[in-house]
Amino acid sequence: MALLEVRNLGISFGGLRAVDDLNMDIEQGALVGLIGPNGAGKTTAFNLLTGVYQPSDGSIKLDGQQLVGKTPTDICKSGVARTFQNIRLFSKMSVLDNVKVALHNHIEYSLAESFFHFGNYSKKEKEMDERALDILKVFGLDTYADALASNLPYGKQRKLEIARALATEPKLLLLDEPAAGMNPNETKELMDTIELIREKFHVTILLIEHDMKLVSGICEYLYVLNFGMELAHGEPSVVLNDPRVITAYLGE
Q1: For the chain, how big is the Rg over CA atoms in Å?
Q2: pLDDT of 181
Q3: Any alpha helices (H) in the chain, and if so which ranges?
Q4: Which residue, among 174, 239, 167, has the nearest Cα to 26 in the 3D structure?
């Protein structure tokens, strides 16, 4: 059984069929790309996988567990985390606190303990500080722990968003255009980071990306969307040379 099983997934907005009959199987530990021209339905598919939108039809299963009908919070607790095409950090919070927010998925204390700082509060806060710093070290961000997230350079903000997603301890990590706005050096560093976190955190990764050098360099399998429908799927060397895929990107 695949970690993620998507069957006949679709959503309509009025008369617009944004995603139509999407099927995907993603194995545990895989690094898979979801590609397609602008407006193909890629981010809509991510919104369906994370409960932002509820599908008009179809099913989504993670480890055999049905996700359709669940809230984004419950889906996150089930093991799906994501980043966004436009960075969404808590800009006025510290780098460390951005990661600690996500750790509350797994480390809890009562409302009274949080108000009056007794019981498990100090112990749990210390555990979260240590865990957040461990995650930040993977991305080379531990030296920025006390800085405001808004003061980080763009490339490091991208990394912080990925670090925050990983702090929820996902089984499946969805990355929405992680290389957007990065220069070639930053993109190469990001490729190495994505490979590292897959191995270190034992997480399965599905990413949306327009940078074909990144896609062909790290993805083991690709799904291609066009006008909300699956156009092709397979190994990158085959898919990226498919005349239908080339036409979808470049036109006749």
Answers
A1: 19
A2: 84
A3: 42-49, 72-78, 95-103, 111-116, 121-138, 154-166, 184-201, 212-218, 236-239, 243-250
A4: 174
In this structure, are strands 57-62 and 65-66 parallel, antiparallel, or unpaired? antiparallel
Output the CA–CA distances (angstroms, integers) from residue 46 to 4, 31, 41, 119, 173, in the order listed.
13, 15, 9, 39, 11
For helices 121-138 and 154-166, the axis angle rounded to 10 degrees is 130
C-alpha dihedral sign at 230, 30, 169, 217: negative
| 129 has a pLDDT exceeding 80 | yes
Tokens of 83: 């980043």
Domains of the chain in start order, with CATH, are 1-79+169-252 (3.40.50.300), 89-168 (no CATH)
User: Tell me, what's the pLDDT at 111?
Assistant: 59
What's the rounded Cα separation, in Å, for the pair 161 and 99?
8
Alpha-helix runs per DSSP H in 20-87? 42-49, 72-78
Query: Is residue 115 predicted with pLDDT exceeding 80?
Result: no
Question: Would you state the torsion angle of the CA atoms of residues 120, 126, 128, 133, taken in this order, to the nearest 10 degrees?
Answer: 180
Tell me, what amino acid is at 233?
H
What percent of the chain is predicted at pLDDT more than 90?
A: 75
Residue 1 has what DSSP assignment? -
Query: Residues in the chain, how many?
Result: 252
Are 203 and 166 in contact, with CB atoms under 8 Å apart?
A: yes
pLDDT band per the 50, 70, 90 thresholds, residue 159? very high
Place of tokens 């993977």: 138
Enter the tokens of residue 214: 């990144």
